[in-house]
Design goal:
single chain; alpha/beta; Rossmann fold; 7 strands; about 20% strand; globular
């Protein structure tokens, strides 16, 4: 897939205010500071499409980006932002939960995992919730350029072992780097095939 156009549409504070659209949506979510904004900018090759911040937890709304006028990339608030207040974390959780469970044209969720780390409980708990809720998702291990390939592979295997405790069949797994653009083609090919099947 070639990205011909990528434009910001709108930000919504909750499901009710999300824009009506017949287009398939692909949502990106991950633990705060996983490199979500950098990945979105890498995929679209627009360095300022999603705001990259040194402070985790910047995304507080559901952000919609129209891609090629054929599908929508959705940037969801990150989970696990330790410095947010308890009420703020609860609100983020409610926003994300309602979107993931009730958004009719959601095609797939891209769950971003930091490839430098051994499995984090919060990531495993979130993927378990997706499995239990029947929400389609794939795993994307980010920042693959920052560790040796063997270390990345070892962390992925550990994550798969953790998921095996609550999941019979594993989702598709991708690795990527916003810096080197590795994995970009594979992710866009997956989205392209999914769009064609709509």
């Amino acid at each position: 897939m070639q990205i011909q156009s990528a434009t910001f549409e709108t930000s919504s504070p909750d499901l009710e205010s999300c824009p009506e659209s017949p287009l398939p949506e692909f949502a990106f979510i991950g633990r705060s500071n996983v490199g979500k904004s950098s990945l979105i900018n890498m995929l679209t090759r627009k360095k300022d499409l999603a705001v990259v911040s040194s402070k985790p937890g910047r995304t507080r709304l559901i952000n919609f980006f129209l891609i090629n006028k054929r599908w929508t990339l959705v940037d969801l608030p990150g989970y696990g932002y330790a410095k947010a207040s308890g009420s703020a974390r609860k609100k983020f959780q409610e926003i994300v939960t309602s979107y993931l469970l009730d958004r009719a044209n959601l095609s797939c969720v891209f769950v971003l995992i930091d490839s430098r780390l051994t499995p984090q409980r919060i990531d495993l708990e979130f993927t378990e919730w997706l499995v239990d809720s029947g929400v389609p998702f794939v795993l994307v291990f980010t920042k693959a350029d920052k560790s040796k390939p063997k270390a990345v592979s070892a962390n992925i295997e550990l994550f798969k072992e953790g998921m095996a405790e609550f999941c019979d069949g594993l989702p598709r797994i991708y690795t990527c780097s916003a810096k080197t653009e590795s994995g970009r083609g594979e992710l866009l090919d997956f989205i392209d095939q999914a769009v064609r099947m709509q």
